[in-house]
Amino acid sequence: MMLTPAHHFRNIERKPEYLQLEKCMPPPYPGPVGTMWFIRDGCGIACAIVTWFLVLYAEFVVLFVMLIPSRDYAYSIINGIMFNLLAFLALASHCRAMLTDPGAVPKGNATKEFIESLQLKPGQVVYKCPKCCSIKPDRAHHCSVCKRCIRKMDHHCPWVNNCVGENNQKYFVLFTMYIALISLHALVMVGVHFLHCFEEDWTKCSSFSPPTTVILLILLCFEALLFLIFTSVMFGTQVHSICTDETGIERLQHKDRQQQARSWQPLKETFGGDFSLNWCNPFSGQPEIPPDKDLVRQVSQSDTDDTLATEEPTGTTDEEPVEVMDA
Questions:
Q1: Which tens digits make up the pLDDT trace of 117-169?
Q2: CA 135, 141, 146, 151 torsion-angle sign
Q3: Which site among 4, 87, 142, 192 is 20 to 30 Å from 294 CA-CA?
Q4: Which position among 129, 132, 133, 157 bears the catalytic label?
């Protein structure tokens, strides 16, 4: 949906309660350092469980239907190590993407005292999200599932039960990459196993009965093909978004942002430093984001004319939160 300027700079007199900063309660006392981030969404939790189940199903078929019954021990050991390593990295990336704070803005920080502490200069404004009563940084969007404003929110993904944002985009990219790799690996092994079984007796190529073996392999083939296509598209889309420094929401809204030349810098910022094996490591940390990053925005005169001045010297406005979800 293309947003008109009226969406971005709505006449905030229609909902005057949004401008009453005294109604914003101070943010709750922060939890202990290292508190786990987890979204309590039934659909997202179900999708995450299904994701793990499908990976474990592939693990079962690869090990107990194809590799362990094989008499070629070198083939079984090499492919077993490769598949299990990729599956472990995929599930680890999934956990990091699901349990990492994607870049949530502190809830309820749009208080009069905090805004005054920013000491805004002429031409500077802050935007307040009316849904979570938070100061919305530049390029942040409100997620109706997470119920928070997320920095550089790309989309909300139910498969990882979390938003994909500034802090966890690396882990989501790694998740899609490793799932695509194990799907491709499984397809190749299924093809090799079918050829092997056609050349020899079906009763000798698996510890299961021939009908059961065929059903298990066909199900794995469909699962691997579906996941290979889906995750490959998602991986390419995410890498393109990082290289062009444009999130999925910004692309759908057709926002007029200054286009930057494609370079390694956005990739370095997302994956943490110069290219190394840590780019593929889901256990490597992310650089800490300053809590006041991009809270204050510089607006042009035309934007200021569309913004209704308030009694406070903050220039706060109501901005429509937007979110998208992937399939």
A1: 778 788 778 888 888 888 888 888 999 999 999 999 999 999 999 999 999 99
A2: negative
A3: 4
A4: 157
